[in-house]
Amino acid sequence: MTQRGYLGVDVGSVSTNLVVIDDAGEVMAKIYRRTQGQPIKAVQEGLVELSQALTDGGWDPERLDVAGVGTTGSARHLSGVVVGSDIVKNEITAHAVAAMHCVPGVRTVLEIGGQDSKIILLRDGIVVDFAMNTVCAAGTGSFLDHQSGRLGIPIEEFGGHAMRSDEGCQIAGRCSVFAESDMVHKAQMGHSTHDIIYGLCKALVRNYMNNLAKGKELASPVVFQGGVAANAGMKRAFEEDLSVAVTVPEHYNVMGAIGAALLAKRRVADGRPSIFKGFEASTIAYETSSFSCKGCANNCEVINITVGGEVLARWGGRCGKWDMQELSEERAGSVR
């Protein structure tokens, strides 16, 4: 018997996540892996791993009818070409859709990933406000990873240490450099590792609130998602700061991919066939290149993705001049 599913792909600077959901929106299989600066390789290897995850879960990938595919994340256009996506959406939309699916009635979404953080405010199922922080490293997963390595404590154990602290010590959290220096100072003063780690969690939450949530009404229900949501200390710090319960969804670390899959399900609801290239897309030799368009003062950097010398897609131009799969001889001749 053929099983129908929908594929969601979320490719960011730190992690690449792939999810297959069924008609009810339940997760059939998921993959969370590192991007390591190679998004095409990460997606292709992720497809192989996802196929194995489906098999391990009792599903036959060869009998899976992938009826729709959605991509999101900073490399959403690139991954959309690689897998054959029916819809490409930004991270805000994808995370909001996933949060509403997992926690109906959610009004505030807190999301912290490897390199950035987001806040999304919803009212009656509509995004009314959002903010993103892609500049400051303090408060992101990469900073926590760095501190876990410096302290010699696996990042998976950070939450446990934080939960064993009664209050946590004061750590300066506005800057990653100052935070690290302050942590060293507190250790030299004799503060326990538990208190230092929970103090760091509270500092990161303060930084998040000051940078993203200032002046915004953070109403309950509140959902905390993204890879950093695995840290129970961060959840505790958010609950203390907001004085409300914070929900961490079961699949907190792949919510962007779940949202992309749900959006794909809506996209093909009218019966249109998917353009999914199949799990065999993991073996296609994709190449990327770029050029600067000299057509105006914008000097846009345009990205090409090719297979065997044939341009499949391109993006990056502001005016849409290059947002075509097939090029005229005149335009092709002006590429430098």
How does this structure look, described?
- The chain is of the alpha/beta class and 336 residues long.
- It folds into three domains: 3-95 and 256-283, ATPase, nucleotide binding domain (Nucleotidyltransferase, domain 5); 105-248, 2-Layer Sandwich (Nucleotidyltransferase, domain 5); 286-333, no CATH class.
- Helix content is 35%, strand content 24%.
- The protein has ten helices and 13 strands.
- The protein has helices at residues 39-56, 76-83, 91-102, 141-151, 158-163, 176-189, 193-213, 232-242, 255-267, 329-333, and strands at 3-11, 15-21, 27-34, 64-72, 87-88, 108-112, 117-123, 126-133, 222-225, 246-247, 286-292, 301-307, 310-315.
- It has a five-stranded mixed β-sheet.
- Strand 4, helix 2 and strand 5 (87-88) form a beta-alpha-beta unit.
Short description:
The protein is 35% helix and 24% strand. The protein has 336 residues and is of the alpha/beta class.
Report the sheet with the most strands, covering strand number, pairing sense and barrel closure: 5 strands, mixed
Low-confidence stretches: 324-336
What is the number of domains?
Answer: 3
Number of strands: 13
Mean pLDDT: 87
Q: Mind telling me the C-alpha Rg?
A: 22 Å
CATH domain class name of the largest domain:
Alpha Beta
CATH topology of the largest domain: Nucleotidyltransferase, domain 5
Question: Quaternary status of these chains?
Answer: single chain
